[in-house]
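A quick aside before the break. I want you to see a complete sequence-to-structure record at least once, exactly as it would be stored in a machine-readable document. Don't worry about memorizing anything.
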Amino acid sequence: MDAENIDIKRQNIGTEQFLIPERKIIATHFFGDGCSIDFWSCLNIDRADILLDEIKTIGFNTIIILIPWTGFQIDVEPIVYYDEYFELLEQLLEKAFNKNLQVIFRVGYAYDHGVASRLRKGNLDLFFHPAGMSAWREYLRKLWSLTKGYKNFLGGFITWEDFFLLEFTHHPLEQRVKYAHGIGYQAYLRGRLTLKEVSDIYQKHFNSFDEVPIPSLGTYSLKIFCEFWDSFLVDYLYKESVSLFPRLSMEVRVDAERISENEYASHDKTFDINEKSPVTFIYYSPAWGARNDGSAELSDSLLERMRYLLAKVRESTDNHIFVDQFNFVDNTPLFEKNTTIKAEEIPEFLNGSARILKESTIGYGLWTFKDVRINVIRNGSFERAYPAWSTEGVEIRTCSDLRRAALISRNCFLRQEIRLAGEESPKKGKCFKFEMKVRPLKQPGYLKDLSIVLLDREKKEIYQKKMLCSEDITTDWVVIREELFMDNGYTLSIHNDGDPVLITSIYAYQRVQENGIIDCEGNKKSFYETFLNMNKIILNNDESCLGN
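That is the input. The structure line, written in C-alpha coordinates, reads:
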Protein backbone atom coordinates (compact mmCIF):
# COMPACT_ATOMS: atom_id res chain seq x y z
CA MET A 1 0.00 0.00 0.00
CA ASP A 2 1.52 3.34 -1.04
CA ALA A 3 1.10 6.70 0.57
CA GLU A 4 -1.79 7.68 -1.69
CA ASN A 5 -3.88 4.89 -0.16
CA ILE A 6 -4.23 6.58 3.22
CA ASP A 7 -8.02 6.64 3.44
CA ILE A 8 -9.71 9.01 5.86
CA LYS A 9 -13.40 8.55 6.64
CA ARG A 10 -14.85 12.03 6.26
CA GLN A 11 -18.59 11.26 6.44
CA ASN A 12 -20.26 13.73 8.82
CA ILE A 13 -16.84 14.92 9.97
CA GLY A 14 -15.31 18.03 8.51
CA THR A 15 -11.61 18.42 7.90
CA GLU A 16 -11.65 20.96 10.73
CA GLN A 17 -12.13 18.15 13.24
CA PHE A 18 -10.00 15.19 14.24
CA LEU A 19 -10.09 12.82 11.26
CA ILE A 20 -11.48 9.32 11.77
CA PRO A 21 -9.78 6.68 9.58
CA GLU A 22 -11.78 3.94 7.90
CA ARG A 23 -9.77 1.32 9.79
CA LYS A 24 -8.86 1.17 13.45
CA ILE A 25 -5.91 3.25 14.64
CA ILE A 26 -3.04 0.98 15.74
CA ALA A 27 -0.48 3.43 17.10
CA THR A 28 2.73 3.78 19.02
CA HIS A 29 4.47 6.87 20.30
CA PHE A 30 7.59 7.46 18.22
CA PHE A 31 10.75 8.18 20.23
CA GLY A 32 13.42 7.42 17.63
CA ASP A 33 16.58 6.35 19.46
CA GLY A 34 15.64 8.26 22.61
CA CYS A 35 12.85 8.43 25.17
CA SER A 36 10.02 10.90 25.71
CA ILE A 37 12.11 13.67 27.28
CA ASP A 38 15.04 13.53 24.83
CA PHE A 39 13.28 12.45 21.62
CA TRP A 40 13.99 15.70 19.79
CA SER A 41 17.51 15.85 21.19
CA CYS A 42 18.28 12.34 19.89
CA LEU A 43 16.26 12.35 16.66
CA ASN A 44 18.40 11.27 13.72
CA ILE A 45 16.18 12.05 10.76
CA ASP A 46 18.40 9.98 8.45
CA ARG A 47 17.71 6.86 10.54
CA ALA A 48 13.98 7.55 10.84
CA ASP A 49 13.16 5.42 7.79
CA ILE A 50 14.70 2.35 9.45
CA LEU A 51 12.69 2.87 12.63
CA LEU A 52 9.44 3.62 10.77
CA ASP A 53 9.86 0.43 8.73
CA GLU A 54 10.21 -1.52 11.97
CA ILE A 55 7.03 0.09 13.30
CA LYS A 56 5.11 -0.89 10.16
CA THR A 57 6.41 -4.47 10.30
CA ILE A 58 4.91 -4.90 13.77
CA GLY A 59 1.51 -3.86 12.44
CA PHE A 60 1.20 -0.22 13.51
CA ASN A 61 -0.45 2.18 11.09
CA THR A 62 -0.04 5.39 13.12
CA ILE A 63 2.65 7.18 15.12
CA ILE A 64 2.05 9.62 17.97
CA ILE A 65 4.59 12.45 18.15
CA LEU A 66 5.24 14.52 21.27
CA ILE A 67 5.45 18.25 20.48
CA PRO A 68 6.80 20.02 23.58
CA TRP A 69 5.79 23.66 23.85
CA THR A 70 8.92 24.35 25.91
CA GLY A 71 11.18 22.98 23.17
CA PHE A 72 9.52 24.30 20.04
CA GLN A 73 8.94 27.76 21.54
CA ILE A 74 11.82 28.71 23.80
CA ASP A 75 10.72 32.19 24.85
CA VAL A 76 7.39 33.96 25.10
CA GLU A 77 8.28 37.65 25.24
CA PRO A 78 9.40 38.17 22.60
CA ILE A 79 8.31 34.87 21.04
CA VAL A 80 11.30 32.80 19.94
CA TYR A 81 11.02 29.44 18.17
CA TYR A 82 13.64 26.72 17.89
CA ASP A 83 13.43 26.45 14.11
CA GLU A 84 15.36 23.19 13.77
CA TYR A 85 12.58 21.31 15.60
CA PHE A 86 9.99 22.57 13.13
CA GLU A 87 12.24 21.55 10.22
CA LEU A 88 12.68 18.07 11.72
CA LEU A 89 8.93 17.78 12.27
CA GLU A 90 8.20 18.53 8.62
CA GLN A 91 10.74 15.95 7.50
CA LEU A 92 9.28 13.38 9.88
CA LEU A 93 5.74 14.04 8.61
CA GLU A 94 6.97 13.56 5.07
CA LYS A 95 8.70 10.30 5.91
CA ALA A 96 5.62 9.00 7.73
CA PHE A 97 3.49 9.88 4.71
CA ASN A 98 5.85 8.02 2.39
CA LYS A 99 5.58 4.97 4.68
CA ASN A 100 1.75 5.23 4.67
CA LEU A 101 1.73 5.94 8.40
CA GLN A 102 -0.85 8.24 9.95
CA VAL A 103 0.27 10.85 12.50
CA ILE A 104 -1.21 12.20 15.75
CA PHE A 105 0.36 15.02 17.79
CA ARG A 106 0.43 15.50 21.55
CA VAL A 107 0.68 19.22 21.09
CA GLY A 108 1.69 20.43 24.55
CA TYR A 109 4.09 17.88 26.00
CA ALA A 110 5.64 19.42 29.09
CA TYR A 111 9.30 18.33 28.78
CA ASP A 112 12.23 18.68 26.41
CA HIS A 113 15.64 17.54 27.63
CA GLY A 114 17.57 19.42 25.00
CA VAL A 115 17.28 23.03 23.87
CA ALA A 116 17.57 25.63 26.61
CA SER A 117 14.10 27.11 27.07
CA ARG A 118 13.41 30.38 28.83
CA LEU A 119 9.91 29.30 29.79
CA ARG A 120 10.55 29.47 33.52
CA LYS A 121 7.73 27.20 34.65
CA GLY A 122 7.24 25.24 31.44
CA ASN A 123 3.56 24.80 30.53
CA LEU A 124 2.51 26.59 33.72
CA ASP A 125 3.77 29.84 32.18
CA LEU A 126 0.22 29.99 30.81
CA PHE A 127 -0.65 31.27 34.28
CA PHE A 128 2.41 33.08 35.54
CA HIS A 129 3.82 34.91 32.54
CA PRO A 130 1.77 37.86 31.28
CA ALA A 131 2.43 36.81 27.69
CA GLY A 132 2.04 33.08 28.36
CA MET A 133 -1.40 32.47 26.84
CA SER A 134 -0.70 34.76 23.91
CA ALA A 135 2.51 32.81 23.17
CA TRP A 136 0.65 29.49 23.48
CA ARG A 137 -1.87 30.72 20.89
CA GLU A 138 0.91 31.70 18.47
CA TYR A 139 2.59 28.31 18.97
CA LEU A 140 -0.67 26.54 18.05
CA ARG A 141 -1.18 28.77 14.99
CA LYS A 142 2.30 28.00 13.72
CA LEU A 143 1.96 24.28 14.38
CA TRP A 144 -1.44 24.09 12.65
CA SER A 145 -0.19 26.05 9.65
CA LEU A 146 2.70 23.63 9.24
CA THR A 147 0.72 20.39 9.53
CA LYS A 148 -2.83 20.93 8.27
CA GLY A 149 -1.95 20.13 4.66
CA TYR A 150 -0.67 16.60 5.32
CA LYS A 151 -3.21 13.96 4.34
CA ASN A 152 -1.80 11.51 6.87
CA PHE A 153 -2.20 13.96 9.77
CA LEU A 154 -5.25 12.89 11.79
CA GLY A 155 -5.03 15.59 14.44
CA GLY A 156 -3.66 16.34 17.87
CA PHE A 157 -4.59 16.33 21.51
CA ILE A 158 -3.79 18.11 24.73
CA THR A 159 -3.84 16.22 28.02
CA TRP A 160 -4.52 16.88 31.69
CA GLU A 161 -1.15 15.30 32.41
CA ASP A 162 0.74 18.20 30.80
CA PHE A 163 -1.24 20.71 32.89
CA PHE A 164 -1.10 18.82 36.17
CA LEU A 165 -2.46 21.37 38.61
CA LEU A 166 -2.32 18.91 41.51
CA GLU A 167 1.40 19.71 41.52
CA PHE A 168 0.49 22.91 43.40
CA THR A 169 -1.08 20.97 46.29
CA HIS A 170 2.36 19.87 47.53
CA HIS A 171 3.68 23.38 48.22
CA PRO A 172 3.74 25.20 51.60
CA LEU A 173 0.65 27.20 52.56
CA GLU A 174 2.11 30.62 51.73
CA GLN A 175 2.96 29.51 48.19
CA ARG A 176 -0.43 27.84 47.75
CA VAL A 177 -2.15 31.13 48.52
CA LYS A 178 0.07 32.91 46.00
CA TYR A 179 -0.53 30.25 43.33
CA ALA A 180 -4.30 30.27 43.98
CA HIS A 181 -4.32 33.88 42.84
CA GLY A 182 -1.87 33.32 39.96
CA ILE A 183 -3.79 30.49 38.31
CA GLY A 184 -7.20 32.08 38.75
CA TYR A 185 -8.52 29.71 41.40
CA GLN A 186 -9.58 32.49 43.78
CA ALA A 187 -11.43 34.25 40.95
CA TYR A 188 -13.13 30.96 40.07
CA LEU A 189 -14.39 30.57 43.67
CA ARG A 190 -15.47 34.22 43.86
CA GLY A 191 -17.69 33.74 40.81
CA ARG A 192 -19.42 30.61 42.10
CA LEU A 193 -19.55 30.55 45.89
CA THR A 194 -19.92 32.88 48.85
CA LEU A 195 -16.97 33.32 51.17
CA LYS A 196 -18.92 31.50 53.88
CA GLU A 197 -19.50 28.53 51.59
CA VAL A 198 -15.77 28.40 50.82
CA SER A 199 -14.96 28.64 54.55
CA ASP A 200 -17.35 25.75 55.24
CA ILE A 201 -15.74 23.61 52.54
CA TYR A 202 -12.25 24.34 53.87
CA GLN A 203 -13.46 24.17 57.50
CA LYS A 204 -11.53 27.36 58.09
CA HIS A 205 -12.63 30.98 58.35
CA PHE A 206 -11.46 33.34 55.58
CA ASN A 207 -11.84 37.13 55.71
CA SER A 208 -11.41 37.45 51.95
CA PHE A 209 -11.05 35.32 48.84
CA ASP A 210 -7.45 36.53 48.65
CA GLU A 211 -6.68 34.33 51.67
CA VAL A 212 -7.96 31.11 50.10
CA PRO A 213 -5.13 28.69 49.19
CA ILE A 214 -4.95 25.82 46.80
CA PRO A 215 -5.87 22.90 49.08
CA SER A 216 -3.27 20.39 50.15
CA LEU A 217 -3.56 16.84 48.87
CA GLY A 218 -5.79 14.58 50.95
CA THR A 219 -8.14 17.28 52.24
CA TYR A 220 -11.87 17.60 51.57
CA SER A 221 -11.48 20.96 49.82
CA LEU A 222 -9.55 19.17 47.06
CA LYS A 223 -12.90 18.31 45.51
CA ILE A 224 -13.65 21.89 44.51
CA PHE A 225 -10.09 22.39 43.27
CA CYS A 226 -10.59 19.40 40.95
CA GLU A 227 -13.75 21.07 39.65
CA PHE A 228 -11.66 24.18 38.92
CA TRP A 229 -9.05 22.03 37.17
CA ASP A 230 -11.69 20.41 34.97
CA SER A 231 -13.18 23.79 34.13
CA PHE A 232 -9.74 25.20 33.25
CA LEU A 233 -9.01 22.30 30.90
CA VAL A 234 -12.34 22.17 29.08
CA ASP A 235 -13.85 25.64 29.30
CA TYR A 236 -10.66 27.60 28.89
CA LEU A 237 -7.60 25.74 27.61
CA TYR A 238 -9.32 23.39 25.17
CA LYS A 239 -11.81 26.02 24.00
CA GLU A 240 -9.01 28.47 23.26
CA SER A 241 -6.74 25.86 21.70
CA VAL A 242 -9.23 24.20 19.36
CA SER A 243 -10.10 27.58 17.86
CA LEU A 244 -6.49 27.82 16.67
CA PHE A 245 -5.70 24.14 16.10
CA PRO A 246 -9.07 22.86 14.79
CA ARG A 247 -8.20 19.18 14.54
CA LEU A 248 -7.70 18.92 18.30
CA SER A 249 -8.98 16.54 20.96
CA MET A 250 -8.11 16.03 24.62
CA GLU A 251 -6.97 13.16 26.80
CA VAL A 252 -9.24 13.21 29.86
CA ARG A 253 -8.44 11.97 33.33
CA VAL A 254 -10.25 8.68 33.98
CA ASP A 255 -8.77 8.26 37.47
CA ALA A 256 -10.65 9.81 40.38
CA GLU A 257 -8.99 11.81 43.17
CA ARG A 258 -9.44 10.38 46.65
CA ILE A 259 -11.06 12.96 48.92
CA SER A 260 -11.78 10.88 52.01
CA GLU A 261 -12.19 7.26 53.05
CA ASN A 262 -15.33 6.78 50.95
CA GLU A 263 -15.42 9.80 48.64
CA TYR A 264 -13.69 10.53 45.34
CA ALA A 265 -13.68 13.44 42.92
CA SER A 266 -14.46 12.18 39.43
CA HIS A 267 -13.50 14.01 36.25
CA ASP A 268 -16.35 12.56 34.18
CA LYS A 269 -17.69 16.03 33.33
CA THR A 270 -14.70 16.40 31.00
CA PHE A 271 -15.38 13.19 29.08
CA ASP A 272 -17.57 14.83 26.43
CA ILE A 273 -14.97 17.60 26.02
CA ASN A 274 -16.67 19.93 23.55
CA GLU A 275 -19.00 19.82 20.55
CA LYS A 276 -15.96 20.54 18.36
CA SER A 277 -14.30 17.21 19.12
CA PRO A 278 -15.64 13.89 17.79
CA VAL A 279 -13.03 11.89 19.77
CA THR A 280 -12.28 11.54 23.48
CA PHE A 281 -8.77 10.31 24.32
CA ILE A 282 -8.28 8.12 27.40
CA TYR A 283 -5.55 5.85 28.81
CA TYR A 284 -5.48 2.42 30.42
CA SER A 285 -3.30 0.47 32.83
CA PRO A 286 -4.05 -2.57 35.04
CA ALA A 287 -4.01 -0.17 38.01
CA TRP A 288 -7.30 1.45 36.96
CA GLY A 289 -9.99 0.59 39.51
CA ALA A 290 -7.69 -1.91 41.27
CA ARG A 291 -6.62 -2.27 44.91
CA ASN A 292 -3.08 -1.23 43.99
CA ASP A 293 -1.54 -3.11 46.87
CA GLY A 294 1.38 -4.51 44.87
CA SER A 295 -0.53 -7.57 43.72
CA ALA A 296 -0.60 -9.17 40.26
CA GLU A 297 -4.00 -10.22 38.98
CA LEU A 298 -5.52 -12.68 36.53
CA SER A 299 -6.59 -11.45 33.11
CA ASP A 300 -10.33 -12.01 33.68
CA SER A 301 -10.62 -9.38 36.43
CA LEU A 302 -8.52 -6.89 34.46
CA LEU A 303 -10.61 -7.35 31.32
CA GLU A 304 -13.78 -6.86 33.34
CA ARG A 305 -12.47 -3.55 34.69
CA MET A 306 -11.42 -2.44 31.20
CA ARG A 307 -14.96 -3.04 29.94
CA TYR A 308 -16.29 -1.08 32.90
CA LEU A 309 -13.91 1.82 32.22
CA LEU A 310 -15.03 2.10 28.60
CA ALA A 311 -18.69 1.82 29.60
CA LYS A 312 -18.16 4.54 32.22
CA VAL A 313 -16.73 6.90 29.59
CA ARG A 314 -19.53 5.97 27.18
CA GLU A 315 -22.14 7.04 29.76
CA SER A 316 -20.87 10.63 29.48
CA THR A 317 -20.21 11.00 25.75
CA ASP A 318 -21.21 9.81 22.30
CA ASN A 319 -17.70 10.59 21.07
CA HIS A 320 -15.47 7.99 19.54
CA ILE A 321 -13.02 6.70 22.16
CA PHE A 322 -9.29 6.36 21.52
CA VAL A 323 -6.90 4.83 24.09
CA ASP A 324 -3.73 6.79 23.44
CA GLN A 325 -1.75 4.94 26.14
CA PHE A 326 -2.62 1.25 26.37
CA ASN A 327 -0.11 0.50 29.13
CA PHE A 328 -0.84 -3.15 29.81
CA VAL A 329 2.71 -3.37 31.18
CA ASP A 330 3.59 -0.38 33.35
CA ASN A 331 6.42 0.36 35.80
CA THR A 332 5.86 4.08 36.42
CA PRO A 333 8.18 5.27 39.23
CA LEU A 334 6.61 6.06 42.62
CA PHE A 335 3.72 3.75 41.72
CA GLU A 336 5.46 0.46 42.46
CA LYS A 337 2.39 -0.82 44.33
CA ASN A 338 0.14 -0.44 41.31
CA THR A 339 -1.67 -3.62 40.35
CA THR A 340 -0.13 -5.51 37.42
CA ILE A 341 -1.00 -8.50 35.25
CA LYS A 342 0.46 -11.87 36.17
CA ALA A 343 3.22 -12.40 33.60
CA GLU A 344 1.82 -15.71 32.40
CA GLU A 345 -1.60 -14.08 31.93
CA ILE A 346 -0.48 -11.36 29.50
CA PRO A 347 -1.22 -13.39 26.32
CA GLU A 348 -4.75 -14.16 27.52
CA PHE A 349 -5.22 -10.51 28.46
CA LEU A 350 -4.13 -9.38 24.98
CA ASN A 351 -6.53 -11.85 23.39
CA GLY A 352 -9.40 -10.45 25.42
CA SER A 353 -8.29 -6.85 24.82
CA ALA A 354 -8.47 -7.37 21.06
CA ARG A 355 -12.21 -7.93 21.25
CA ILE A 356 -12.81 -5.03 23.66
CA LEU A 357 -10.73 -2.50 21.72
CA LYS A 358 -12.30 -3.54 18.43
CA GLU A 359 -15.86 -3.22 19.72
CA SER A 360 -15.59 -0.12 21.92
CA THR A 361 -12.87 2.14 20.49
CA ILE A 362 -11.44 3.51 17.25
CA GLY A 363 -8.08 2.07 18.28
CA TYR A 364 -5.22 2.39 20.72
CA GLY A 365 -1.64 3.57 21.11
CA LEU A 366 1.32 2.22 23.05
CA TRP A 367 3.46 4.61 25.06
CA THR A 368 6.42 2.92 23.40
CA PHE A 369 6.86 -0.26 21.37
CA LYS A 370 10.43 -0.62 22.65
CA ASP A 371 11.53 -0.29 26.26
CA VAL A 372 13.40 2.98 26.73
CA ARG A 373 16.09 4.22 29.07
CA ILE A 374 15.38 7.51 30.86
CA ASN A 375 18.60 9.20 29.87
CA VAL A 376 19.97 12.15 31.89
CA ILE A 377 22.69 12.93 29.32
CA ARG A 378 21.74 15.79 27.04
CA ASN A 379 22.46 15.46 23.33
CA GLY A 380 24.28 12.17 23.90
CA SER A 381 24.07 11.30 20.20
CA PHE A 382 25.36 14.70 19.02
CA GLU A 383 22.42 15.27 16.71
CA ARG A 384 21.79 18.90 17.67
CA ALA A 385 24.00 21.95 17.96
CA TYR A 386 23.04 22.45 21.61
CA PRO A 387 25.67 23.90 23.96
CA ALA A 388 25.21 20.88 26.23
CA TRP A 389 28.86 19.80 26.02
CA SER A 390 32.06 21.63 26.87
CA THR A 391 34.67 20.38 24.43
CA GLU A 392 38.29 20.63 23.46
CA GLY A 393 39.60 19.04 20.28
CA VAL A 394 36.21 17.58 19.31
CA GLU A 395 34.65 17.41 15.85
CA ILE A 396 31.15 16.06 15.08
CA ARG A 397 31.03 13.60 12.17
CA THR A 398 28.40 11.51 10.39
CA CYS A 399 29.45 7.87 10.22
CA SER A 400 28.74 5.25 7.56
CA ASP A 401 25.78 3.85 9.54
CA LEU A 402 24.23 7.37 9.57
CA ARG A 403 25.01 7.89 13.26
CA ARG A 404 26.54 11.17 14.33
CA ALA A 405 29.52 10.88 16.64
CA ALA A 406 32.05 13.03 18.44
CA LEU A 407 35.62 12.58 17.15
CA ILE A 408 37.91 13.25 20.14
CA SER A 409 41.54 13.97 19.31
CA ARG A 410 44.52 13.02 21.46
CA ASN A 411 44.70 14.80 24.84
CA CYS A 412 41.18 16.23 24.39
CA PHE A 413 37.82 15.79 26.14
CA LEU A 414 34.02 16.04 26.26
CA ARG A 415 32.41 17.41 29.43
CA GLN A 416 28.83 17.90 30.64
CA GLU A 417 27.30 19.08 33.91
CA ILE A 418 24.51 16.76 35.04
CA ARG A 419 21.16 18.51 35.49
CA LEU A 420 18.40 16.34 36.92
CA ALA A 421 14.72 17.09 37.48
CA GLY A 422 11.38 15.34 37.79
CA GLU A 423 11.41 11.71 36.73
CA GLU A 424 15.15 11.95 36.02
CA SER A 425 15.99 12.72 39.64
CA PRO A 426 18.29 10.07 41.11
CA LYS A 427 17.26 7.54 43.70
CA LYS A 428 19.58 7.96 46.65
CA GLY A 429 22.07 5.16 47.08
CA LYS A 430 21.43 3.81 43.59
CA CYS A 431 24.04 4.15 40.88
CA PHE A 432 23.49 5.17 37.28
CA LYS A 433 24.10 2.72 34.50
CA PHE A 434 26.42 4.41 32.05
CA GLU A 435 27.10 3.29 28.50
CA MET A 436 28.44 4.68 25.26
CA LYS A 437 29.43 3.41 21.83
CA VAL A 438 33.06 3.89 20.82
CA ARG A 439 35.46 2.97 18.06
CA PRO A 440 38.91 4.17 16.91
CA LEU A 441 38.98 6.53 13.96
CA LYS A 442 41.34 4.16 12.16
CA GLN A 443 40.36 0.48 12.02
CA PRO A 444 41.58 -1.89 13.13
CA GLY A 445 42.69 -0.20 16.34
CA TYR A 446 42.73 -0.39 20.10
CA LEU A 447 41.04 1.43 22.93
CA LYS A 448 43.43 1.91 25.81
CA ASP A 449 43.64 5.62 26.61
CA LEU A 450 40.00 6.62 27.04
CA SER A 451 38.94 7.61 30.56
CA ILE A 452 35.69 8.43 32.36
CA VAL A 453 36.07 11.11 35.03
CA LEU A 454 33.51 12.44 37.54
CA LEU A 455 33.77 15.82 39.25
CA ASP A 456 31.64 16.83 42.24
CA ARG A 457 29.82 20.16 42.62
CA GLU A 458 33.08 21.85 43.66
CA LYS A 459 34.72 20.45 40.50
CA LYS A 460 36.95 18.11 42.49
CA GLU A 461 37.73 14.78 40.87
CA ILE A 462 35.95 11.97 42.74
CA TYR A 463 36.16 9.14 40.19
CA GLN A 464 38.35 8.10 37.30
CA LYS A 465 38.48 4.90 35.32
CA LYS A 466 40.34 4.01 32.14
CA MET A 467 38.38 2.06 29.51
CA LEU A 468 40.40 -0.80 28.06
CA CYS A 469 39.75 -3.00 25.04
CA SER A 470 42.65 -5.27 24.20
CA GLU A 471 41.21 -6.66 20.95
CA ASP A 472 41.33 -5.05 17.54
CA ILE A 473 38.21 -2.98 16.80
CA THR A 474 37.22 -2.97 13.15
CA THR A 475 34.14 -1.16 11.80
CA ASP A 476 31.73 -2.20 14.56
CA TRP A 477 30.96 -0.04 17.54
CA VAL A 478 32.02 -1.32 20.94
CA VAL A 479 29.64 -0.65 23.82
CA ILE A 480 31.36 0.41 27.05
CA ARG A 481 29.35 0.00 30.25
CA GLU A 482 30.03 1.29 33.76
CA GLU A 483 28.16 2.07 36.97
CA LEU A 484 28.47 5.60 38.31
CA PHE A 485 27.21 7.40 41.40
CA MET A 486 26.07 10.85 40.20
CA ASP A 487 23.96 13.69 41.51
CA ASN A 488 22.74 17.11 40.45
CA GLY A 489 25.63 19.41 39.66
CA TYR A 490 28.18 16.65 39.09
CA THR A 491 30.26 16.84 35.91
CA LEU A 492 30.88 13.89 33.61
CA SER A 493 34.09 14.14 31.61
CA ILE A 494 35.35 11.78 28.87
CA HIS A 495 39.09 12.12 28.25
CA ASN A 496 41.11 10.72 25.39
CA ASP A 497 44.89 10.45 25.84
CA GLY A 498 45.48 8.22 22.83
CA ASP A 499 44.71 8.04 19.12
CA PRO A 500 41.55 9.79 17.85
CA VAL A 501 38.36 7.97 18.82
CA LEU A 502 34.68 8.25 17.86
CA ILE A 503 32.01 8.29 20.58
CA THR A 504 28.21 8.28 20.34
CA SER A 505 24.99 7.07 22.00
CA ILE A 506 25.98 8.17 25.52
CA TYR A 507 23.44 7.14 28.17
CA ALA A 508 23.30 7.46 31.95
CA TYR A 509 20.11 6.13 33.51
CA GLN A 510 18.65 4.55 36.61
CA ARG A 511 15.35 3.50 35.13
CA VAL A 512 14.04 1.69 32.08
CA GLN A 513 10.44 2.18 31.03
CA GLU A 514 9.20 -1.33 30.35
CA ASN A 515 6.05 -0.52 28.39
CA GLY A 516 7.31 -2.09 25.18
CA ILE A 517 6.94 -5.39 23.39
CA ILE A 518 10.70 -5.34 22.64
CA ASP A 519 13.38 -4.79 25.29
CA CYS A 520 16.25 -2.28 25.17
CA GLU A 521 18.56 -4.84 23.59
CA GLY A 522 16.13 -5.51 20.73
CA ASN A 523 14.86 -8.85 22.06
CA LYS A 524 11.19 -9.71 21.52
CA LYS A 525 9.26 -10.27 24.71
CA SER A 526 7.44 -13.53 25.40
CA PHE A 527 4.06 -12.08 24.40
CA TYR A 528 5.33 -10.48 21.17
CA GLU A 529 3.55 -12.87 18.79
CA THR A 530 0.29 -12.63 20.72
CA PHE A 531 0.55 -8.86 20.46
CA LEU A 532 0.95 -9.07 16.68
CA ASN A 533 -2.10 -11.30 16.54
CA MET A 534 -4.03 -8.75 18.58
CA ASN A 535 -3.26 -6.09 15.97
CA LYS A 536 -4.45 -8.40 13.19
CA ILE A 537 -7.72 -9.06 15.01
CA ILE A 538 -8.43 -5.39 15.58
CA LEU A 539 -7.60 -4.43 12.00
CA ASN A 540 -9.01 -7.36 10.07
CA ASN A 541 -12.07 -8.26 12.14
CA ASP A 542 -10.81 -11.84 12.10
CA GLU A 543 -10.60 -13.79 15.35
CA SER A 544 -9.30 -17.02 13.85
CA CYS A 545 -5.82 -16.43 15.30
CA LEU A 546 -7.04 -15.88 18.85
CA GLY A 547 -6.21 -18.49 21.43
CA ASN A 548 -8.96 -20.46 23.12
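Two observations worth writing down. The domain at 1-8+23-163 is CATH 3.20.20.80 (TIM Barrel). The radius of gyration is 25 Å. We'll return to this after the break.
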